[in-house]
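Summary for the steering committee. One of the milestones for this cycle was to obtain a three-dimensional model of the protein with tryptophanyl-5'AMP bound, which we needed before selecting residues for the alanine scan. The sequence and ligand used are listed below.
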Amino acid sequence: MKKMISGIKPTGQLHLGNYIGALQPFVQSQEEFDVNVFIANLHCITMPIDPEELQTNLRDALRFYLAVGLDPKKSTIFLQTDVHEIAQLGFIMSCLTPMGELNRMTQYKDKKDTGISLSSGFYTYPTLMTADILIHKAQYVPVGDDQKQHVELARNTAERFNNRFGDTFVVPEPVIAKVGSRIMSLSDPSKKMSKSDKDGEKGVVYLKDTLKVARKKIMSAVTDSIGIVQYDVENQPGIANLLTIYAALKKISIPEAVSEFKDVQYGGFKKAVADEVCALLEVLQEKHQSYDEAYIESVLQEGADKVRPTAQAVLKEVQEKLGMEILK
Ligand code: TYM
């Protein structure tokens, strides 16, 4: 069975973009692949955090992993820091990655000009992500469009390592959803829907939003004055985004979604999208509440225990190849 690895960094509450771009594809892959998903808590501290808020976000994220349908009997779910080898391989990866490559990372370029004081951890975080991926020797990495560049960095590092030190890593491929790999903000459809969106109150539907709030956000989504529901990203980015959300949730193609709303006005169309989103949130929120702490802890414990042997073996192999090990 081919292996998949992916993670989410819950620096804020999970949102509809995370669900459509990542969580839904993880769940759909469970029957066919050995799916490994983790909560990237080291990545969470690359920007300033509030410990209490982080703790809540981590626990909520884990509950949503389960609520969306990730089944611990089929998939492996773990917390990044429960597998210590990842951070150690992360340091090694940072030593094997030229700064020039990190300077080209879009997320770094976008942040560095904002004037925010950035930590060195934020700068090197793509090298930790390289370790997150390569340590599992997985073939596939399902991610949203914004993480593709980081998976490509991991591929480059794997290839470079294999060429220089002998075949070690699997060179992983990014898997990007056909529909919904880049859900846009509802209030500004030129921007990605994002946890760090300052306009989050209006642009982002959080999985924890009340149904009333979620519906209001969809009903107030920015559209245009053209008045026809059609998929035209250039001229009707708001409508195109709502069509994408609808198609992804209904698991239909964009043309199928368009044909459903051929003669429907924007108000009716938005209501249909809101109905779909609210139906999803209702189910997720009910399940979110249903797990007790002992179960959550057992899922994490078992997940880390399952992943650790491979992580240890791969780290040892890498260190041996680099000539770092003394004990056999
Ligand atoms: P993060 O936490 O920003 O996002 C988690 C996943 O959700 C996807 N995503 C979206 N997809 C569609 N539309 C959106 N608006 C949207 N926003 C987010 C992301 O592409 C991602 O798949 N560095 C990563 C976490 C990570 C990781 C890894 C992922 C750490 N190590 C190893 C894969 C493999 C991150 O910050 O994702």
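Key point for the committee: The longest helix spans residues 293-321.
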